[in-house]
Amino acid sequence: LSAAGTPSSGVMDWIGSACRFASDRNDFRRNLLVNLGLFAAGVWVARNLSDFDLMSPQPVT
Amino acid sequence: MGSVLAASSPNPPPPTSGGAPAPGLTVPPGFGMPPVSPVIPPAGAASGQQQEAENPLPNPGAFDECHRKCKEVFPMQMEGVRLVVNKGLSNHFQVNHTVLLSTMGDSSYRFGATYVGSKQTGPAEFFPVMVGDMDNTGSLNAQIIHQITNRIRSKVAFQTQQQKFVNWQGDAEFRGEDFTATVTLGNPDVLVGSGIVVTHYLQSITPALALGGELVYHRRPGEEGTVMSLVGRYTGSNYIATLTLGSAGAHASYYHKANDQLQVGVEFEASTRMQDTSVSFGYQLDVPKANLQFKGSIDSNWIVGATLEKKLLPLPLSLVLCAFLNHHKNKFQCGFGVTIG
Fold first, then answer.
1. Cα B295 versus chain centre, distance
2. pLDDT of residue B56
C-alpha cells in the first residue's frame, strides 16, 4: 500500500474518480459527454458504413 | 464510399392535367419540404463576381424545416389498431375517416376534411389550403394556409379540447431571395394581457451554409421573458448537418442519403431545463419494387423501434406495422394500421 500523498495514490485517486464519473448515470455532464461520443460514432457509421446496395444481385457461389 | 447523390426532398403530389390536384390527395400542397440545394464548387477569383450573379444564393427554406429531413427518417410510434379511409370527392376536396382502437387510452373516431384551392403558385402548390379534423369528443384541429403574395405566406391554426380553445395562432412567412423571415403570434389574449410572439430568421450565407436564429417572447400577468436560439445548417452533396443552440438546450442532427434505398439519421438532444441528453440513430429503407418502406431506430434511452409500411397494390390499400421496445422500463408497444385510399 502506498502512503497518502505519494504520486501513485494521486493517480489511483484520479482513476477512481474518473471511474465513478463514467458510471454515474445521474450526472448530467457525464451523460452529455457519453451522448456526444455516441452522436459522433453515429455520424461516422452513417458516413462510412451505410454504403451498400440492397438491390445488387446475389453473388454466384 | 458509394456514388455521390444529391439529397432530395420527398416527392410532392404529381400535378394533374387540369392544373388542379388529383382526387385522393393525401398530403396538402404547401406542406412539402423545399428542395435541398447541392454544394456549388468554388469559382476562380476572376470570374467570382460573374459567378455570383449567375448563381445567386438560394432561399434556405423555412426555419422549422431545418431538422425535418432527419426527423422523417425515424419511425413514428403507434399503438393499437388504426383504420384510415381517404376519399377524394373532387379535385379540391378530400375527406378522411380515422378509427383508432387503443389498448392504453380511449378509442376514438376522427373525421377530417381537406380543401385545396385553385390558385397555383408552383408545380404542386395550390392555395388556399384548409385542413381540419374533429374527433368524437368534439375536439377540433384546423389550419388555413394561404399564399397572400408571391413571397408572403400566412397560416392560421386552431386547436380545441372539446369546447375549450387551447391553441390559436397565426403566422406570416416572408421568403426573400436568400432569406426567410417568419413572425408567429400564439395564443394572444388581449383581455388577460398574455401571449407568445415567435420570430424566425434564416439566411443563406453560401449555397451550402445557412445561419439563423429564433427569438421567443412570452408574456402573462406578472411574468414575461425571452428565449433565444441560433441555428446553423450545412448541406453537402448527400448529407445535411444542422445544429441548434440556445439557452434551453442544444439539438444536433445529421441526415445522410447513402443511396436511393437507404437514408440514415442521427440526432442529439440536450435540455438544460430537464438536465437530460439523448442520442437517436435511425434509418429508412425504401424498396420500391416491393412497395415497401422500413424504418428502424435505437436511442440512448434503450428504446428500439421499427415500422413497416407496405402498399398492397393493385388495391388502394396500405398496411403499417409498428413495434417499440423500451428495454430500460421493460415496456412493449405495438400497432397495426390499414389505410384505404
1. 17
2. 84
Asked, for residue B56, whether it belongs to a domain, the answer is no
Number of domains in chain B: 1
User: What's the DSSP call for residue B45?
Assistant: S
pTM of the entire predicted model: 0.80
Q: What is the pLDDT of residue B121?
A: 84
User: B250: pLDDT confidence band, cut at 50, 70 and 90?
Assistant: very high
* Chain A residues within an 8 Å CB radius of B252: 39
Q: How many contacts (CB atoms, under 8 Å) link A and B?
A: 64
What one-character DSSP code corresponds to residue B79? Answer: -
Residue of A38, A50, A55 lying closest to B279 (CB–CB):
A38
Quick check: is A12 in a domain? no
Window 245-304 of B: residues touching A by CB (8 A cutoff) are 252, 254, 256, 258-259, 261-262, 264-268, 270, 275-279, 281, 283, 285, 287, 289, 300
**Would A47 be classed as within a structural domain?**
yes
For residues B252-268, give the mean pLDDT: 95
A47: domain range? 27-55
Task: Indicate whether A32 belongs to any domain.
Answer: yes
Q: Does A50 touch chain B (CB under 8 A)?
A: yes
Q: Quick check: A54 and B1 CB within 8 A?
A: no
pLDDT digit string, tens, across residues B97-117: 999 999 888 999 999 999 999
- Residue of chain B whose alpha carbon sits nearest to that of A48: B1
Total domains in chain A come to 1
CA dist B287 and B142 (Å) reads 34
CATH number of the domain enclosing B166: 2.40.160.10
Domain membership of residue B144 as a residue range: 63-340
Q: Indicate the burial class of B73 (C-beta count within 10 angstroms; 0-12, 13-18, 19 or more).
A: buried
Whether residue B7 lies inside any domain: the answer is no
CA dihedral A45, A46, A52, A54 (to 10 degrees): 120
